[in-house]
Each structure stands twice: as structure tokens, then as C-alpha cells.
Amino acid sequence: MGYEACTTDACNASYDEVLTHLSPYGWGYMGIAFGLGLSVVGAAWGIWLTGSSLVGAAIKAPRIRSKNLISVIFCEATAIYGVILAILLLSKIGDGVKGKSEYPEDWNYSQFYFAGYSLFSSGLSVGLTNVASGISVGIAGSSCALADAQDGSLFVKILIVEIFASALGIFGIIVGIIQSNDADYPS
């Protein structure tokens, strides 16, 4: 029972066959999963960065505890962007023709696959943007807590930098909405 050479056509499949033989609904749901999952990872990472610095700096200056919780809220916003995108993309999928084993002769397969690829790319790009946004907000929030513990007048100045970092997530969801704008599964 040694190695046998593959001589069937199934062994010679190309990448375009793999990409077109996965269900467009599968591509859409994978995009939703990546968008939501990576957004939550970005938020958690940012909260971890901000929270650990906040707790450490609050030992020196307990006055910063409640004021710097705004940094945690900015981190949490990236997860909310992922939830918003997931709701929007789920509404694009709709009921459609899921579960049918045969499609009509005049079925528009290009529209069907375009919708799946569009939702996948939208979810992936928003998820990756929100990871970057969560980390940058976490780093800025950490700096804000440490600076506020040293000098209370620095809080607002560094909070503005944190707002700019949070804007990355907003830009990501705008791009994701534009990417999925023309994605309509045929019914």
C-alpha cells in the first residue's frame, strides 16, 4: 500500500474551481463571521491594553479611574461596528433560495457569486480594520491613562488622539458598506 499517483480529474482541480464550487452563501456567512469576530478581537485587545494601564496608573493617582473609562468605551465601539456590519450583511443575504437543490435554467450565477464574494470581502476588510482600530485606540487609551496620572491637564489633549484612532473603525465600516452595496442574492 504505497503512494499511488492520482489520475482522476478531481486530483487536478484548480483554484478557480475551488473558489466557484463553494456556496456563495458560505462566502457571505464567512464574511459576516470574519467581520464580527475580528471586530470583537480588536475591541478586546484595545480594552486589555487600556485597562491594564488604567489599573496600574490608578495606583499612583486614584482620581483617574472613572475619567479614563471613556477609553474603554472607545475600544468597545469597534465591536459595535462589527455588530452593525453583521446586521447589514445578514439583511443582504435575506431568504433567497437557500436549501434548493436545483436552480432554474436562466439562473444568474455571476450575480450569485458576486454577492457572496462581495459580502466576504466586506466582512474581512471591516474586521481587519477594526483589529487595527482597536489596537490603536488601546495604545492611545493606555497613553492617556498614564499621562493623566502624571499631569491632569494632558487628559483632553491625548483623548483627541484617541478619537482619531477610533475614526479608523468608522472609515472601515463605511468602506465595508460601499463594498457590499451592490451585493444582492438573486431570488
TrEMBL record:
Residues annotated as transmembrane: 27-48, 69-91, 154-178
Keyword field: Hydrogen ion transport, Ion transport, Membrane, Transmembrane, Transmembrane helix, Transport
Membrane topology (UniProt): Multi-pass membrane protein
Residue ranges annotated for the V-ATPase proteolipid subunit C-like domain, each copy included: 30-89, 121-178
Intracellular or extracellular location(s): Membrane
Gene3D superfamilies reported for this sequence: lithium bound rotor ring of v- atpase
Entry's Gene Ontology cellular component terms: proton-transporting V-type ATPase, V0 domain
Single GO term (MF): proton-transporting ATPase activity, rotational mechanism
Similarity section: Belongs to the V-ATPase proteolipid subunit family.
Protein name: V-ATPase proteolipid subunit C-like domain-containing protein
Species per Swiss-Prot/TrEMBL record: Chrysophaeum taylorii
